[in-house]
């Protein structure tokens, strides 16, 4: 059994956040939850708080440590972290090694994230877990919003990370990173400090180390909290608009051949929709036929809605789009298992 620690404000805050998240997810006794733990302060604090709260609620709690193999020391870090988590009372605790392509076209950060989530999904499915707990904090949320803003990728990107989506829970989104660090100090836990978190070749690290501190210095304290509030408000708006868009898609779209990736959109219905809904309907159509969804593709389809004068068909990164009278047809041009071009 883990040693009993003195309750401090940081420990109380993290435990309360975990308890609220598990309550919101309607977890029951004997359900299994898994903590994704790297050994860093955020995920280590989350794991310790989950072990405490799960035991009180009769919920089974385990952990998955994804070892990316990107640094020589991470194998030893994973083994040490696993031992700490078992001492905290988590069971099962598994280390999962993944392969991250060194020259991935999406970049090292994105490739590592994709591999990590695939490993977590596979482990949760195999073990029958009801939830996967992630240690993202308010600071991570603020960084995500700024990164989305730099890409100009719309309100869904600016809405940041959700506190609960499917079986993923992020209990710590309302807490600053300083709180998880204080939790570890107060609990006698020694987190791993990933050298990658200090290398400014990574965009997120530059946001963390340079951009956010600069904004705090020039605009005053509270920038991270303001960005997180913005994410929450935009997520609520985006969720509502996405729901409206699904209804708009059903009114405007006809799936002519699902197996071949073909769909038609009725132009009169598109013209009746406000831009916020129409753009989402077009995105849904592009996703349905397996296209690369970007603002460029959506604008190109919109041109066929608003400014059609007999143009030829468009080839949009794996999708052929053609207007015939009052119908716009979208059809995949990819062969099976072929990825869209970057």
Protein structure class: alpha/beta
Instruction: Give the CATH H-level superfamily of the largest domain.
Output: HUPs
- In round numbers, the mean pLDDT is 90
Instruction: Sketch the topology as an H/E string, one letter per element.
Output: HEHEHEHEHHEEHHHEEHHHEEE
The CATH class of the largest domain is Alpha Beta
Which architecture of the largest domain per CATH? 3-Layer(aba) Sandwich
Shape: elongated
How much helical structure, as a percent, in the residues?
A: 40-55%
What fraction of the residues are assigned to beta strands by DSSP?
5-15%
Spans of 5+ residues with little confidence (pLDDT < 50)? Answer: 336-342
Q: What is the end-to-end distance?
A: 51 Å
Largest sheet, strands/sense/barrel = 6 strands, mixed
Number of helices: 12
Can you count the beta strands? 11
Radius of gyration: 23 Å
Q: What is the domain total for the residues?
A: 2
Sheet with most strands: strand arrangement: 3-2-1-4-6-5
The quaternary structure here is single chain
| CATH third-tier fold name of the largest domain | Rossmann fold
List the helices and strands and how they pair.
Elements: H1 9-24, E1 32-36, H2 41-57, E2 60-67, H3 74-88, E3 93-97, H4 108-127, E4 131-133, H5 138-151, H6 155-158, E5 164-165, E6 168-169, H7 177-187, H8 203-219, H9 223-252, E7 253-257, E8 262-266, H10 267-271, H11 275-288, H12 295-306, E9 314-315, E10 319-324, E11 327-332
Parallel strand pairs: 1-2, 1-4, 2-3, 4-6
Antiparallel strand pairs: 5-6, 7-8, 8-11, 9-10, 10-11
Helix pairs in contact: 1-2, 1-7, 2-7, 5-8, 5-9, 9-11, 11-12
């Amino acid at each position: 059994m883990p040693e009993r620690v003195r309750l401090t404000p940081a420990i109380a805050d993290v435990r309360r956040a975990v308890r609220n998240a598990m309550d919101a997810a309607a977890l029951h006794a004997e359900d299994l939850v898994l903590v994704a733990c790297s050994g860093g302060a955020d995920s280590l604090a989350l794991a310790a708080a989950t072990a405490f709260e799960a035991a009180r609620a009769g919920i089974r709690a385990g952990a998955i440590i994804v070892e990316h193999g990107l640094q020589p020391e991470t194998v030893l870090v994973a083994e040490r972290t696993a031992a700490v988590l078992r001492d905290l009372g988590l069971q099962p605790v598994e280390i999962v090694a993944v392969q991250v392509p060194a020259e991935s076209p999406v970049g090292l950060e994105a490739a590592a994230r994709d591999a990590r989530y695939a490993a977590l999904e596979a482990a949760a499915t195999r073990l029958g877990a009801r939830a996967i707990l992630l240690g993202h904090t308010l600071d991570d949320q603020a960084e995500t919003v700024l990164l989305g803003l730099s890409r100009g990728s719309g309100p869904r990107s600016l809405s940041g990370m959700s506190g609960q989506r499917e079986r993923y829970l992020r209990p710590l989104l309302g807490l600053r990173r300083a709180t998880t660090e204080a939790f570890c100090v107060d609990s006698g836990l020694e987190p791993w400090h990933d050298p990658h978190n200090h290398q400014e070749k990574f965009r997120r690290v530059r946001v963390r180390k340079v951009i956010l501190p600069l904004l705090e210095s020039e605009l005053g304290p509270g920038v991270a909290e303001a960005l997180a509030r913005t994410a929450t408000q935009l997520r609520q708006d985006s969720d509502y608009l996405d729901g409206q868009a699904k209804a708009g898609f059903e009114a405007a779209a006809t799936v002519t051949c699902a197996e071949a990736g073909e769909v038609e959109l009725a132009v009169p219905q598109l013209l009746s929709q406000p831009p916020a809904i129409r753009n989402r309907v077009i995105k849904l159509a592009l996703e349905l036929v397996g296209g690369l969804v970007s603002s460029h593709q959506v604008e190109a389809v919109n041109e066929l809605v608003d400014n059609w004068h007999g143009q030829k068909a468009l080839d949009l990164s794996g999708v052929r789009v053609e207007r015939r009278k009052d119908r716009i047809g979208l059809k995949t041009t990819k062969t099976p298992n072929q990825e869209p071009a970057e």
